[in-house]
Design brief:
heterodimer, A: alpha/beta, 9 strands, B: alpha+beta, about 50% helix, globular
């Protein structure tokens, strides 16, 4: 009569129900564009001056709670509070507490630097389902270089405090030219803290901040991104697991073109716009935070109409037909947001991603054959 | 009966779930799913004194013998007790 169920089991179940029934199971709420870090590869780290110059405004707590209530009434279970740095909002706990009372399972994306003092105390009394903490390096010097703030040791201590209290924490690591020398140290520290790390070497071009005075995009070359991807695999996998990964890669890829060439590309394969939505800090609904379109405005047309528009427009998106016929399509990680951010079109091939996956496969296979794995 | 743990009942696409809030989040890495009978009993918990009273209501609502109902109810209450919910 009662069954205890854990993620990702119930997440997969509810998203598949949501997709079939058109329900917004997950909502991502970008509470602010402000951040106390200044990372060059980030798509959203506006200063107060940039926000003022843009002529746009952050939504109020009341507006956020109104959107969340409508989403909840449509089936939302999961809410991700993100930014910028969401904990910079003075009324953060008004939004957080209000959403918790709705029976939402809340996760929080944060850089971890503000999880101390009174903020920490409040979270320890009423924790979220999970903190996703972004790591930017493995020492204070790297943090200073990448984020402009030498706070690695502080962040590490904050993670340790949360873990010791029993709060769920996972780490996200974005590898860039600024922190790629720290991989081993980060891996070791994460092991010591007993926290899982989700690493990525792929950085989206920051398309969403073009025109707001933030044009920087310091990411690795495709070849270096491949190199550090494989380096991370070597750290986290045993030789046997690494060899298995190489074998799985070989099974996935095919040099033979498909017998029936695709005329039309595939649709959006992830949850974006079918069972999840993204709300930008200034009130725009998108399928995913890394897309700039399709967009809808729930504060103007109501949540139900906005969600309907997002679902319908997302269903029309087609990725490149060349990708649909490619032998690497199941391992390269291409998606509609990547195509759009890289090329400006959903149906144009993102060459950076092609180059990165080919090089990743090549280095992985080479490493195995050199060691007879 | 007293519900000790802070949980919020939600109904989503035909499923009934209990979402832990406050300190209850520490004891549950997820949520609790209730079937139809579980949800029926859950709604009456604050108003009943014990298993016998629940059984009377279940037998009045469902086509089930008192003994079968009582076995299921005891199992349900036992699980809720072990989870620290009641």
């Amino acid at each position: 009569m009662i069954r205890r169920t854990s993620e990702p089991q119930f997440s997969t179940y509810f998203h598949s129900r949501g997709r079939a029934l058109g329900l917004p199971i997950a909502g991502n709420f970008e509470l602010t564009a402000r951040c106390n870090f200044n990372c060059p590869m980030c798509y959203i780290h506006h200063s107060k001056e940039q926000i003022a110059a843009s002529g746009r405004k952050e939504l109020t707590a009341e507006q956020w709670l109104g959107i969340a209530e409508s989403a909840k009434n449509n089936g939302m279970i999961f809410a991700l509070l993100t930014g910028g740095e969401p904990l910079l909002r003075e009324d953060f706990f008004e939004i957080y507490g209000g959403m918790k009372k709705m029976g939402l399972m809340i996760s929080i994306n944060t850089n971890g630097s503000l999880l101390k003092g009174e903020i920490l105390e409040r979270f320890l009394k009423d924790p979220p389902f999970r903190f996703n903490i972004s790591l930017y390096g493995g020492c204070n010097e790297t943090y200073e270089r990448m984020c402009g703030r030498p706070v690695y040791e502080l962040v590490k201590e904050n993670i340790r405090t949360l873990k010791n209290a029993g709060v769920e924490v996972s780490l996200n690591l974005s590898v860039t030219p600024y922190n790629c020398g720290d991989l081993e140290r980060i891996y070791k520290d994460a092991e010591e803290l007993d926290v899982g790390v989700k690493m990525t070497t792929y950085m989206y071009p920051p398309v969403r901040i073009k025109g707001d005075g933030c044009e920087a995009n310091d990411r690795l070359s495709a070849h270096d991104a491949a190199k550090y991807t494989v380096m991370w695999d070597k750290l986290r996998l045993t030789d046997e697991m690494f060899a298995q990964r190489a074998e799985n890669m070989a099974k996935c890829i095919s040099d033979e073109p498909l017998s029936c060439p695709m005329e039309e590309g595939e649709g959006v394969r992830c949850r974006a716009g079918s069972s999840s939505f993204w709300m930008t800090w200034d009130g725009k609904m998108l399928p995913c935070g890394l897309m700039t379109e399709p967009a809808a405005y729930p504060l103007e047309v109501g949540f139900d109409n906005a969600w309907k528009t997002i679902r319908e427009k997302t269903a029309e998106i087609r990725m490149p037909s060349k990708c649909a016929a490619c032998g690497y399509k199941d391992i390269c990680g291409v998606c509609a947001a990547v195509c759009s951010a890289e090329t400006g079109a959903f149906d144009a091939v993102p060459e950076y991603v092609c180059e990165k996956i080919c090089e990743t496969v090549r280095i992985t296979q080479e490493y195995c054959s050199e060691r007879n794995l | 009966m007293v519900i000790k743990k802070e949980v919020i009942k939600r109904e989503i696409a035909g499923d009934t779930i209990l979402v832990p809030v406050g300190a209850a989040v520490y004891d549950s890495n997820g949520l609790y799913a209730l079937n139809e009978l579980g949800a029926f009993i859950w709604d009456m918990l604050p108003d009943v004194s014990g298993a016998e009273e629940i059984c009377e209501r279940v037998v009045a609502e469902y086509d089930v013998s008192p003994k079968e109902a009582m076995d299921d109810i005891n199992e349900f209450l036992d699980t809720l007790g072990k989870l620290g919910i009641i």
